[in-house]
Design goal:
Blueprint lengths: L1 H4 L6 E6 L2 H14 L3 H7 E5 L5 H8 L9 E6 L12 H8 L5 E8 L8 H8 L3 E6 L7 H11 L3 E2 L1 H11 L3 H14 L5 E2 L1 H8 L7 H10 L2 H13 L6 H21 L4 H8 L6 H10 L2 H18 L11 H11 L5
Helix pairs in contact: 4-5, 5-6, 7-8, 9-10, 11-12, 11-15, 12-17, 13-14, 13-15, 13-16, 16-17
């Protein structure tokens, strides 16, 4: 990005990898900033991989720009170029001798290019190509990612709000950014993102959510846990049973890991199990209530719950009864 901002361009950009968000951001920057607005009609072409062939792209790249220094060719969803066994031979020949006044940008999303293929090898050999390989941001990295993104934009966010967003929006960075940007618009002059703002603008309840459910389980608060389950049942679209099951699994795995690292200091434990240090005391309480042997039984029960949430065994996948039963068993020590 530094070279792009400084207007130092490469003839070819190959953007590929599992995380689509960064690929889209680079493409958006090039699309909006390389050419002046008046030049875009003549010298900027945006196509999708499914709609063109390698020859179409190569032929367009060899056309000289009109009324400007550069022409920009952007191929979005370039992973679709090879659909239906289409070949990339014509594009390979262009890579060997690209036009200096053409900027070709290819966004190859959701997976890495196969480094064994001749197409990648020719790209890799060329000093005319700039690569960006994006890696997936995993679930345990999402809270830190949210904190950094919010801070970069000049706002602040508390730990509970970060966890709410991470739990309910998940690791889809494009969707996450879209939801966070909504919160920026509605935040007051303090520029603080709070659970109240999230509840009002995204629809995630600050009192009845998966975070509060795991907290109720950890403290064995049966009344609160059942309140939350009733709320989930009344709002299944926002709290699908399959998602809740995954979150419960992740929670109890972390409580299990707490036992393994409990001799470390709290900050080190938090880092080892992948949680914000602000919540480590919650895990300490849960660990006292659930010994490792009990957690093993609970995790086995969660796997059964997961199957039920998917409709196995002639069970209604939208029935929250099995979840309520699971919570009852946890809190009343049935797994002891």
């Amino acid at each position: 990005m530094r070279n792009l901002i400084n207007r130092v361009y490469s003839p070819i950009y190959l953007l590929h990898g599992e995380e689509a968000y960064y690929i889209d951001e680079v493409i958006k920057y090039i699309e909006n900033n390389v050419l002046e607005e008046a030049d875009k009609a003549f010298n900027q072409t945006v196509v999708y991989g499914r709609d063109v062939t390698a020859r179409d792209i190569a032929d367009r790249c060899r056309v000289y720009s009109m009324l400007g220094n550069y022409q920009v060719i952007i191929v979005k969803e370039a992973q679709d170029l090879t659909a239906n066994n289409r070949k990339l031979d014509d594009l390979e020949s262009y890579i060997e001798n690209p036009q200096e006044n053409t900027i070709l940008v290819m966004g190859y999303k959701y997976k890495k290019l196969d480094k064994r293929k001749s197409f990648y090898k020719k790209l890799n050999k060329s000093d005319k190509v700039t690569f960006l390989e994006t890696k997936k941001v995993y679930d345990n990295q999402i809270p830190g990612w949210i904190d950094r993104y919010v801070k970069e934009k000049g706002y602040s966010i508390d730990a509970v709000s970060t966890r709410l967003l991470a739990d309910y929006v998940g690791s889809d960075l494009s969707r996450l950014v879209n939801e966070i940007n909504k919160l920026f618009i509605t935040a007051d002059e303090s520029k603080k993102i709070t659970p109240q703002i999230i509840e009002t603008n995204i629809g995630i309840s600050k009192d009845y959510n998966i975070f509060e459910l795991t907290k109720a389980l950890g403290t064995r608060n049966v009344f609160k846990a059942q309140q939350i389950i009733h709320y989930f049942e009344a709002n299944p679209k926002d709290n699908p049973l399959q998602m809740v099951t995954v979150m419960l699994y992740n929670y109890f795995v972390k409580v299990f890991l707490y036992h393994r690292f409990k001799k470390e200091n709290p900050r080190e434990i938090a880092s080892s199990i992948g949680v914000n240090p602000a919540f480590i005391n919650d895990y300490a309480v849960a660990a006292r209530n659930y010994p490792p042997g009990v957690i093993r039984k609970i995790i086995a029960e969660i796997r059964v719950l997961d199957l039920k949430s998917k409709g196995y065994g002639s069970i209604d996948a939208k029935d929250y009864g099995p979840l309520s039963e699971f919570v009852y068993k946890c809190i009343h020590g049935v797994f002891l």
